[in-house]
Amino acid sequence: MSRAPAQLPLGVGLRDDATFASFLPGSNAGLVDRLTHQLDAAGEPFVYLWGASGTGRTHLLQAACHAASDRDLRALYLPLNELGHFPPLMLEEAERLDLVAIDDVDVVVGRRRWEEGLFHAFNRLRDAGRRLIMAADTSPRQLPVKLPDLASRLTWGVTFHLQGLDDAQRLQALQLRARVRGMQLPDEVARYILHRGPRGLGALCEALETLDRASLSAQRKLTIPFVKQALGW
């Protein structure tokens, strides 16, 4: 039986729908392929990905952790926008895990204790032959890192710039997420949600989750009037 991904006592978990199957690659197929095979014997030890908010950074890191769990491996997802105000104690003994996915690295750069914690965790993971993924809103060379050794480490792996989706791809992505949830999302309803809803796919997926619950509760199909009622638009 597959073990659940290792989680912090702080309760950081993974979204059930944040998987590779529910991610529309668009122009990011090379990155998705690299992450999908990262846990293979010849996989990339360190992947750094960066991009604007809403391009799928968090989704991909959580998808990698789900994929590790599916292979009966131990993974840990660390969103530093939620955890960065704590000391970096959760990085201790990170090398006991098969994969560590660190999100929002930009939140803690410039802080000595965190930079040192990341540097030492990087070294321990590398020496143990483990896998590491980091994500931020800017490239590793543009991060204002104060610790030179950490700045050097961040450029060691493969770096990918996440590209956003165009409007047609965003429509496809929304309908893909709906299908993964077992929802029927007609074209006209999907276009209405994209037109009236938030721009970021993460927020759109939260809206889908709300619609899923509402439609199940009301035993209603997704129509534009029902979406207006359920989402208060």
Automatic annotation (TrEMBL):
Gene3D superfamilies listed in its UniProt record: 1.10.8.60, P-loop containing nucleotide triphosphate hydrolases
Coiled coil: none
Segment forming the signal sequence: none
PANTHER family referenced in this protein's UniProt entry, alphabetically: CHROMOSOMAL REPLICATION INITIATOR PROTEIN DNAA (PTHR30050), DNAA REGULATORY INACTIVATOR HDA (PTHR30050:SF5)
Domain Hda lid, first and last residues per copy: 167-231
Species classification: Bacteria, Pseudomonadati, Pseudomonadota, Gammaproteobacteria, Oceanospirillales
Species whose genome carries this gene: Billgrantia campisalis
NCBIfam families found in the cross-reference section: DnaA_homol_Hda
Full protein name: DnaA regulatory inactivator Hda
Pfam families in UniProt: Bac_DnaA, Hda_lid
